[in-house]
Amino acid sequence: MLVAFGLYAFVFPFGVVLLSFGWMPFGMEWMSSLLLGLLGVACAGWMWTNYGPVGGVVSAAVFALGVALEYVGVLTGAPFGRYTYTGVLVPEFPGGVPAAIGFAWLLVVVGGLFTARRLIGAVRPLALALAGAMLAVGLDLLLEPVAFHVKGYWLWAPDPNGYYGIPWSNFATWLAASFALNLLAGWLTRWRGPREWTWLPITLYAMNVAMFGTVNLAHGFWVSGLVAVGLMALVWLGARRARAIVR
Fold first, then answer.
1. Helices then strands, each counted (H, E), the chain
2. Chain-centre distance of CA 206, in angstroms?
């Protein structure tokens, strides 16, 4: 967990600069897949550290169900909308879905759910699952313009009425899927709060909001930049709440 987090944290500032200015060296696109893998490993390790084998089951389930949903999306165009992967993210499972996407689902579920818990505390499970899902969608609002327009990880059939050409059905699906996965994760862990390294999920979530928010602003996606500012304000409130609890 800590090795994966440390490696990601080391590469993080370089990644922000390279993505913002389009300076990624030729032949280094595989680094994006590696970074997503590090994020997923850090999240899975954190789940195991706090919840033991149950945390491992949750991580495996989120990875597998996320990849399965992507398969449905690629093959049928539903429920996300019509899109295809371009081969930039590697390796790919048979059928064209990159393994890195499973790790991305781990980040949005673990990061979103436990950031939400830090923000609103131990409230009713449905409210917590919904709050985590909304944070996951917020992160996707930042990720999609970069992945589609800047890096070309996948291509959408452009929707002129969508969000930077991305159909709104994509974000509705993220909300529903994240909510369901949050409920699964919460039920398996009995909705118990973490005890160790409690800062890690919210830190990973904040780092990705900062990265993709900066890259969006650098490429003129101003709405996404404003979304990033709002999400960072929420993370700041969560950090303040955590300090107040410790005191």
1. 8, 2
2. 10
Per DSSP, the residues of 72-88 read HHHHH-TTT-SEEE-S-
The identity of residue 193, as a single letter, is G
Query: Under DSSP, is residue 166 helix (H, G, I), strand (E, B) or coil?
Result: strand
Of 61, 64, 62, 106, nearest in space to 200 by CA:
106
**Which candidate, 95, 70, 65, places its Cα nearest to that of 83?**
70
Q: Which stretches does DSSP call E strand in the chain?
A: 83-85, 154-156
Residue 246 burial by Cβ neighbours in a 10 Å radius (0-12, 13-18, 19+): exposed
Cβ atoms 140, 174 nearer than 8 A? yes
Residue type, 59: S
How far is the CA of 81 from the CAs of 70, 74, 138, 168, 221, in angstroms? Answer: 11, 9, 18, 8, 21
The string of pLDDT tens digits covering residues 108-164 is 999 999 999 988 887 789 999 999 999 999 999 999 999 999 999 999 998 989 999
Residue holding tokens 């060296």?
Answer: 25
CA distances from 201 to 67, 128, 153, 165, 172 (A): 21, 15, 24, 30, 23
Pairing mode of beta strands 83-85, 154-156: antiparallel
Average model confidence (pLDDT) across the chain: 93
**What does the pLDDT look like over 23-77, one tens digit per residue?**
877 667 888 999 999 999 999 999 999 999 999 999 999 999 999 999 999 999 9
What's the rounded Cα separation, in Å, for the pair 187 and 86?
A: 36
| Contact call for residues 44 and 106 (beta carbons, < 8 A) | yes
